[in-house]
Design a protein that fits this description.
The complex is a heterodimer of chains A (about 80) and B (about 210).
Chain A (H helix, E strand, L loop, with lengths): L3 H13 L4 H13 L1 H21 L6 H17 L1
Chain B lengths: L6 H15 L3 H23 L2 H18 L9 H18 L33 H5 L2 H13 L2 H12 L4 H8 L3 H32 L1
Classes of the chains: A mainly alpha (about 80), B mainly alpha (about 210).
Chain lengths: ~80, ~210
């Protein structure tokens, strides 16, 4: 059976679906017997999700958008 | 987990670029409109500063205007825009005093001699919903990302936040696919650990009440 270290090393490729059938099987067997690795897998996936949701909330403030529009307009007119 | 650019979008963009190269200013407006938010978002996440992100966005949009003929279509147009954005953001960061990076290795998982996990792993993945939209959680997430070393941070922002494919991230950063994967995995492990500390502390605070 593979150990936790190997399991976490394979996590990335597992989630991408890049592992061959045999490796996937031994990884899933490990998960069945190892609740800590299941917790690790779940929190690893959650991390990506909540970081993405938080960092994607960046919006351009209205004032900055207006300034940018003006700069671009002036620049185009002077060319 | 990757959302590569849909083919139609890419074709529309390439057509706009060709029109702008031929002198059509309306095509430029459309390009600026498509990219403005992406440029601002990426530079803000790198610099964590509105003024810097504004400067970078302005500079990149002007560069696209002035130097569109330097774009030769060897890589995707979006890759070119991301590269210009990264360079401009790094120029901003270099002009500032840098806080020392913490070692990413210290936050990697630890194992015993037989390769089994040594620390107790709590599964907080089900408890994030209620915490997601509090300012405290947002702060913790932003600070954790901020603490990532530059090499890991940029891969994480392009791949996981912008949602670019591994291949495209590699193209932009001039990295091989295995190098992108390895940096992204390290970034995720680092962030998972940081967020675990927070969510576990939160759970014990709640239990004490």
């Amino acid at each position: 059976m593979i150990c936790c270290k190997e399991c976490l090393d394979l996590l990335y490729d597992y989630l991408e679906g890049d592992l061959d059938a045999e490796t996937t099987k031994s990884l899933e067997e490990h998960f069945e017997d190892c609740p800590p690795c299941i917790s690790f897998l779940n929190t690893y996936q959650s991390t990506t999700k909540i970081c993405r949701e938080t960092l994607n909330q960046v919006e351009i403030p209205e004032a900055i958008r207006d300034t940018l529009l003006k700069v671009l307009k002036d620049h185009k007119e002077s060319n | 987990m990757s959302f590569s650019q849909p083919k139609e979008d890419k074709e529309v963009e390439e057509a706009l670029v060709r029109e702008f190269q031929a002198g059509n200013l309306e095509a430029y407006d459309k390009i600026a409109d498509i990219y403005q938010k992406k440029i601002y978002g990426l530079s803000f996440n790198l610099t964590r500063n509105q003024m810097d992100a504004q400067d970078v966005t302005q500079e990149v949009l002007l560069t696209l205007f002035r130097k569109i003929n330097m774009f030769q279509g060897k890589s995707a147009f979006s890759s070119w825009v991301y590269r210009i954005t990264l360079n401009a953001s790094y120029m901003k960061l270099r002009s500032k005093k840098k806080e020392p990076n913490i070692s990413i290795d210290e936050l990697m998982p630890s194992f015993n001699g037989a390769g089994f996990q040594q620390e107790k792993i709590q599964d907080w993945s089900e408890n994030t919903e209620s915490l997601m939209f509090t300012n405290e959680t947002r702060d913790v997430i932003n600070k954790a990302v901020d603490l990532l070393p530059e090499k890991e941070k940029v891969v994480f922002l392009l791949r996981d936040v912008e949602g670019l494919s591994t291949e495209k991230t590699g193209e932009i950063l001039d990295l091989t696919v295995p190098a992108v994967k390895s940096r992204l995995h390290r970034a995720r492990l680092f962030l998972r650990k940081k967020l675990s500390n927070y969510f576990e502390e939160f759970a014990s605070r709640k239990a004490e009440k």
